[in-house]
Amino acid sequence: MSIGKYVTNPGVLGAALGAASTAKRTAGMRRDWRRLLVWGVWLAGLALAVASVAMQEQDDDFDAARKARK
To answer: Which of 9, 27, 55, 56 has the fewest Cβ atoms surrounding its Cβ within 10 A?
Structure first.
C-alpha cells in the first residue's frame, strides 16, 4: 500500500483541503451538535475519497477481467 497514490489523488487532496473551509465555517458556530455534524460530514467525505482510491486497483482488475471475457 503506497501512500503516494493517496497524496497525489485530486479527490483526496480536495477533501483534505476542505478541512480549512470547514474550520473557518465552524469557527463562528455555537458549540453544539450542529458543529459536530459539519465535521462529521467533512470526515465522511474524506473517508469516501480515501476509500475510492483504495478500491481503484480492484476496479481496474474487474474491468480488465470483464473485457477479457468479451
So the answer is: 27
Identify which has the larger pLDDT, 23 or 4. 23
- Rounded CA separation 51/45 (Å): 10
CA atoms within 13 A on the CB side of 25: 13
Structure-block grid coordinates of residue 46: 474524506
* Contacts with 5 (C-beta within 8 Å, 6 or more apart), sequence order: 53, 56
Structure letter (DSSP) for residue 31: S
First-last CA distance in the chain:
31
- The overall pTM is greater than 0.85: no
